[in-house]
Amino acid sequence: MASEVWDLYDAHGHRTGRTMTRGEDVPAGLYHLAVHIWPRNSRGEFLVQRRAPGVQWKPNLWAVTGGSAVSGENAVTAARRELREEIGYDAAVDEMEQVACLRRTNSFCGVYSLRIDWPAERFVLQREEVSAVQWCDSARLMRMVAEGMLYNYGDAYFRMLFEYGRRAQDGDRPKRFED
After folding, report:
1. Which of 17, 36, 57, 156 could pair with 66 in a Cys bridge, judged by C-beta atoms 3.0 to 4.6 Å apart?
2. Are strands 130-136 and 97-103 parallel, antiparallel or unpaired?
């Protein structure tokens, strides 16, 4: 498999024209682009995936679907690719709802959600990266965090996600991505 090349961004989220290869340290003062995608169903549950035993980062831990954008991709394109690759769902651009764009230590993270009413068994998993998926309500997700089973994205992150999910469940039309 060829090495992933990532675009580098300045502190304002603008592409710098520079790139790096996955596995290298992100240069000081620069950022790469990552995405998190939280499918949700009509019951207000979120889909999480268990990372495969052979992955380098957090094997066997439950986590959000996501990854890094490769060079030339914007956040929504990367999010759609990760959904297709990891869980076999081919999302249309207009299904993607932007929850947030977070600046972290060395990345910008586009957080997305979309409505999928599939049973967990219907998803086609990329076995090299994902060993299982399950639907969980917010209480179950927080129990999994407390038990060390789900990666802890932080209290503020989960508050943001659950508030977004409540608004979407109540019929408040979430903002859809517009290219």
Report:
1. 36
2. unpaired
CA distance 64 to 35: 10
On the question of pLDDT at 177 being above 90, the answer is no
Per-residue CA distances from 157 to 4, 100, 152 (Å): 27, 10, 9
The predicted-structure confidence for 152-168, as pLDDT tens digits, reads as follows 999 999 999 999 999 99
Q: Give me the residue spans of the domains in the chain.
A: 5-167
8-40 confidence digits (pLDDT tens): 999 999 999 999 999 999 999 999 999 999 999
- Separation between Cα atoms, residue 67 and residue 111, nearest integer Å: 11
Local structure of residue 51 (DSSP, 8 states): E
CA distance 139 to 36: 20
Q: What is the C-alpha separation between 40 and 135, in angstroms, rounded?
A: 8
